[in-house]
Gamma-glutamyltransferase
Amino acid sequence: MNFDTLYHPYSSQRNTTIANKGMVATSQPLAAQAGLDILKKGGNAIDAAIATAATLTVVEPTSNGIGGDAFALVWTKGKLHGLNGSGPSPQDISVEAVKKLGYDEIPKFGWIPVTVPGAPRAWAELSERFGKLPLTDVLQPAIEYAENGFPLSPTLAKYWKSAVKKYTENLQGDEFKHWFDTFAPNGRAPEVGEVWKSPGHARTLKSIAETKAKSFYEGEIADQIDAFSKKHNGFLKKADLAAYKPEWVNPISVNYRGYDVWEIPPNGQGLIALMALNTMKHFESTSTNSLDFYHKQIESMKLAFEDGKKYITEEKHMSQTVEGLLSEEYAKSRSALIEEEAIEPEPGNPPKGGTVYLATADNEGNMVSFIQSNYMGFGSGLVVPETGISLQNRGHNFSLNEEDDNVLMGGKRTYHTIIPGFLTKDQKPVGPFGVMGGFMQPQGHMQVIMNTIDLSLNPQASLDAPRWQWVEGKKVLVEPNFPTHIAEALARKGHEIQVQLDRGAFGRGQIIWRDEENGTLYGGTESRTDGTIAAY
């Protein structure tokens, strides 16, 4: 790994941050600073990750909340651990029940797409197993911001205003009143620099901290969620909350040009990034931003996404195995489909067998890759009264087709878009990375890793490089600063290239790499948002 600030046309946004005692990288400066404060108080990288995540539910509610899910990859004491903090659908929901309500697909808003929130218990689980400080100390920064308020930053204000406009147009019914009371208290979105606070959010965070999340799943908060659901004929019940526990999982990986790239196994879509990289390694590495470099990336990702859409769901419900999808035999067969012209992708037959991201590191060698989300920005449009809990709408990804692997069932976890990533080499940590943003995430993971390994870019340059996003068929979006000559050449190969002016659509990521020789940390953060790195 080359840690130098290499010259590159896309490395001019800002310099890579370098420190050696501790580092927190995320999309919101106040949250990054909250995590750093916890490190300075004697907490480790795990404590810092939890503090940052909890603070993000307050200072970036447009992307995540207490009512969402979380995933983590934790490197500690020479081993990488995976935590799946995604919640299942309510036990009483079913395809038949949803269709009886008049739906042919899962709606985006309201109670039908609401699944059990996993984030609060994931925080408690991480704290209990790996943290050094009490959860009451770790959540204190988030509690203070919720109680006292904070001024909105520019990107946050932009997405908040957009959400209020969208929800005003789409949310009809008494059950949505509490969302507007909480997030548009003056009948509008807060402006840049305006202070917003949420006393209910603060009370909920205090309760989670004091009870190690038990009140959320088994106590007073669970009762409030249950009562709100019953009042509006929702499927979610207290029994669903009480039954939930995050799952410790074995991370999955592929070796890409000497580096091991790690993801959480399904129900997450990290498998897609690994399949695409596994296909790409069958082509010669290129050291330049060539046409061939981009063409093969896009084609590999298209093929991986088609497999992901067909097969990824909760792992025990998948008709294909992870091992089969990541096998060398299958990767070789997929790479053989890639030709000189853009193709229409189809799923293969392998051998049988709106989100916030943050990265933390400390001077003990602990490193965390953490991601959480409500999905589609604020989520379902439902806020539990007086709690600040904005409930997620993850169930929207379920299918109502009984033949699909990801068909809706009670108590099942759906195909999940949020994915943390981690990089190692020779069984030693390089560090955490991630790119948030719905179905852009595996595409962002692939591009950041190839920028790092194939192009030898430093963390900041790897993130700043212009991105592409495959949408469907041959349609590919590119950023405004994407090289025009490459875009035109891709179009000549049959790709349907469209310039997307909103750079936020291409994901927002962070990276922390660690130099194994001296422990120095190198961090990059996203130029597409208010991202920052706090370090010392």
Q: What stands out?
A: The radius of gyration is 22 Å. The CA atoms of residues 20 and 520 lie 5 Å apart. The first strand starts at residue 17 and ends at 19. Residues 1-269+354-467+508-536 form a domain with the Glutamine Phosphoribosylpyrophosphate, subunit 1, domain 1 fold (CATH 3.60.20.40).
